[in-house]
Amino acid sequence: MQRILVPLIFGLAGVAVLVGLGTWQVQRLEWKRGILNDIEARIAADPVTLPADPDPEADRYLPVRVTGRIGDQDPLRVLVSQKQVGAGYRLISALDTDQGRVLLDRGFIRVADAIPPAPGGPVTVTGNLHWPDDRNSSTPENDVAGNTWFARDVAQMAGVLNTRPLLVVVRSVSPADKGVTPLPVDSSGIPNDHLEYAITWYSLALIWAAMTGYFLWRNRRPKAEG
Hints:
Transmembrane segments: 199-217
Family: Belongs to the SURF1 family.
Pfam families: SURF1
Subcellular location: Cell membrane; Membrane
Radius of gyration: 27 Å
Keywords: Cell membrane, Membrane, Transmembrane, Transmembrane helix
């Protein structure tokens, strides 16, 4: 009896733990979906004027409308890739406004394309404040001298373009910034892998239960055959 009871308890405990982990991931999935819905609603809200002293946490994704002139300096080129388009650059320019000089993420051009001139005169930008976290352990250091950037480091870019450490990501600009396709802020870059994790834990629970059942069946076979 003991040789059956101990593996049974061990098997049931393992299944319970794995099912519990899967259920926790389902709960985390709903929690993350709520956060992403809140972010999307915040991104799409009516734009406001640029705050005097925005906070990187409280004002992340804040929609703003600002008028200014795009600076004459060559834009910084951030290497990115677009689905069905391929490699290209985000163009980061300086924008001179009544609230000071800020960074402007104008949007995307292909790698092979020449950098188009910015609109002359005043422009009105509708976009979102952002403090992006583009860097991970495999991201190369930015090649400042060669003007090839691999991450939008707001502080570093602000130092190069002599702006406030503040980035506005364009949703639309008037008059149009011809030749540049806006890459507006959205929640697609925020990972939400909890469904995959839940499926993994539930699958392991099923495998654990099957292995336990097979082990118990093997242990009972000699008695059944005797």
